[in-house]
Amino acid sequence: MKESNKNVLYFVRIIGVLTLITMLLAALLAVVNDVTKDVIAENDRKKTEEAVRGLFPDVENPVSEALEVSCDDTAFGELFRVKNGDKTVGYYATVNPVGFKGEINMLVGLDTEGKICGVQILSMNETVGIGDVIKDEGFLSGFIGKSGSLEYVKGGGSGEGQMDGISGATYSSKAVIVGCNAALAAYAAYSSESGVQ
Q: Taking 80 as the threshold, does the pLDDT of residue 144 lie above it?
């Protein structure tokens, strides 16, 4: 057999083996994904429940009810009513603004007057030690009591809706403001549509 034919057969065999290995690995990943998807979904549900309890700490067993709302904000996910028994104690919105390194998954809590009562960061990929400081309570607590529309103002501002960012984490700070604005816009749309005051 000629040398060139041996080389061709060698490459065909290598390609075949690599293709087989790739197919087996893909099948294994599919099986692992199928086995773990329910566990991941349950962990996400528990994490969200814990975050909702953090937004409404005075409510022992908050019950969430998804609401229909028309909101065009691209960061907006869903709006939920939170009840304690039959009484509405507030609302929260799932929002996904884009930070420096991708989406920041957040819950923004609103009281019955439409003011922010808390912000919880569920997940993010912001730079460790820089962008991830947006999850610090000192920054997030600055949103409590805010309503209407918020804007980023370097160095802070004296206006009601003016928010300062974190030095070195401007994109991440602005993303949290965008997320809060999405939640406020969704609540405003819901209250307008449903007549909630």
A: yes
